[in-house]
Design brief:
Two copies of one chain form a homodimer. Chain A is α/β, with parallel strands linked by helices. Chain A has helices at 3-14, 24-37, 70-80, 84-92, 133-152, 167-178, 183-186, 195-212, 219-226, 229-243, 253-265, 283-291, 307-325, 329-332, and strands at 46-54, 95-102, 113-115, 155-163, 248-249, 273-274. Chain A contains 14 helices and six strands.
Chain lengths: 339, 339
């Protein structure tokens, strides 16, 4: 991350025909992307949204409002273009890449689907580790492979999304573990459980934390014991994006759990992350705060899939266009205000 | 406003492949536009952003960080395409119409500029009414004329923006008047005044309220005494949009002051309004709350010009595309969750 280039971009923005700082988050995004890419005037990027799919053994505990079969059903929906993320990625002009990193069913060959299955879903974290250490690392590596391929293909901005019935349970476990252990405060309704099932979900996560007792200083251990294959895959995308100086948008609660893992593996990674929306899931705000990221879309969404990142892409493009297209005070002959 | 069609649109959305309500604000926007237009599946609209420009006599009191000459200078910048709003309107695919409804200088002929000057700026509201009643009505009518012309030309979505040095002072007076009279709570730094000038600005507005004592039940009286020609013009756009069942986006603080006037003239108008961003100006949240509108962009912006509405346009389009393009549970063969 080049903070000198970030500063040069901000100086350029300060000479444009508007009161200093008055474009707020747009200015922040533009200057951060300048720092990430090393370009004072970053080019409009090719956008790729990576959607990691994986299943969760913990659904055996009855923590979700939807049955596990919905994960492969939704993957097929992504492949035929009818899911919310398809609509929003098309609207954003982003390529959508769907990755099977751990769906508990066999899936057909399809040009949009990357088949990188590490396992047929995780094990039940309420009884023991969700993954072996080797599985967690293999899923991270799958994410790195996908991201590096996309970067070779010209991608200059990533969105990160996921599909996996049960994955708010895994994300709550990771977030609660890193944010002081309060499961109740971090736990939300996911796809829409009722009050009784919400209380049950909290007990299941508390059990998973007690049974597994992850090592706080070993993010792979936390990920393996509490995480999901798609969460590991998203962390891999984030690590590869940062290593290649490509900005990466964080989506909702599950994406932020992956960002926590990536940031624990390498704290510099957050310099390459941009938040998008603030999810309805209560743990999301806590995770973003720990990451030092501020969301700018308040859409009351809780869908995942990367939908928040797709909505944020036009904002990122707007920020970059401001840098390229606005006139300066001198060019436009506009009087400057008092300093 | 057709609440039955709104309900039918929401029922359609509830059958799409996602947990009920999980697209939050996007669902709300789509259903509201259905109710506004009477179409269960509203068509993607042609977008027009109307930028009203006018000057303020109260700048003689020294309430702004920029001199009054910046208003016509910025109008020229809009005409040559170099301002933030030009960049963001182009990005949103929206036509930008600039209206001189009260700039205190003569402006050149230009295809983008509508010359509808009612006066060379308002009078100083710290000494007496900013406008005559006739001027306020003429400026509202100018907005109605511009909006109706745009609707005839196919516009199906309006953004509302403005330029006018001193207009946060007028907007603070209107907002404070309607929100209980606390000028200090509603008053912000506008284009960027320092602490001393902020205290002075508050005193000037308090003086204007004492000198003018508007009639609370007569919105034209409030507008004439405390408002601005561009604020009246924006209120006219909002009234005409509502009368023609066209949704209209509210921008920042000045736009919300115009929306307060429009809503006092006809409370039904808010059914046709959509909020966009939450401005840094402290009075904006209070005005939006009074209007019953919830902003969904938190960009920390305070530029005006309609910039928040331009950024909101891709969100509105995304909401409409969701209605048209997403698969239903039945179509996609995805299992429904528990009810």
């Amino acid at each position: 991350f080049d903070s000198e280039v970030q500063k040069q971009c901000q100086e350029h923005i300060d000479n444009l025909t508007k009161p200093p700082g008055s474009l707020g988050v747009l200015e922040h995004i533009a200057a951060k992307i300048a720092g990430i890419t090393g370009e004072v005037k970053p080019v409009l990027p090719k956008k790729t949204c990576v959607l990691m799919a994986g299943d969760h053994g913990v659904v055996a505990e009855g923590v979700s409002a939807f049955p596990q079969e919905v994960t492969p059903q939704m993957v097929l929906n992504f492949l035929s273009g009818g899911a919310a993320m398809n609509v929003l990625a098309r609207h954003a002009g982003a390529e959508l890449v769907v990755v099977d990193v751990g769906v508990a069913a066999d899936l057909p060959d399809h040009p949009v689907l990357r088949k990188m299955k590490v396992a047929y879903g995780t094990a039940n974290m309420a009884k023991g580790p969700a993954m072996t250490r080797q599985q967690a690392i293999a899923a991270i590596e799958a994410g790195i492979t996908v991201a590096e391929g996309a970067i070779t293909g010209g991608t200059g901005l990533f969105g990160t999304g996921e599909m996996g019935i049960g994955n708010t349970t895994a994300s709550t476990a990771i977030t609660a573990f890193y944010c002081g252990g309060n499961v109740k405060a971090a736990c939300g309704r996911g796809t829409g459980v009722d009050d009784e099932r919400l209380r049950h979900k909290i007990r299941v996560i508390e059990t998973a934390l007690e049974v597994n007792r992850p090592e706080p200083d070993d993010a792979i251990d936390v990920l393996a014991k509490l995480g999901g294959l798609e969460i590991a895959g998203m962390a891999g995308v984030m690590l590869a994006a940062a290593a290649n100086r490509v900005p990466v948008l964080v989506d909702g609660f599950i994406s932020s759990a992956a960002a926590l893992i990536a940031a624990k593996l390498n704290p510099d990674v957050t310099d390459y992350m941009l938040a998008s929306h603030l999810s309805e899931e209560p743990g999301h705000a806590a995770a973003l705060q720990l990451l030092g990221l501020k969301p700018f879309l308040q859409m009351n969404m809780r869908l995942g899939e990367g939908t928040g990142t797709a909505l944020a892409i036009p904002m990122v493009e707007a920020a970059i266009k401001i840098v390229h297209e606005m006139a300066s005070f001198a060019d436009a002959g506009v009087s400057k205000g008092e300093e």
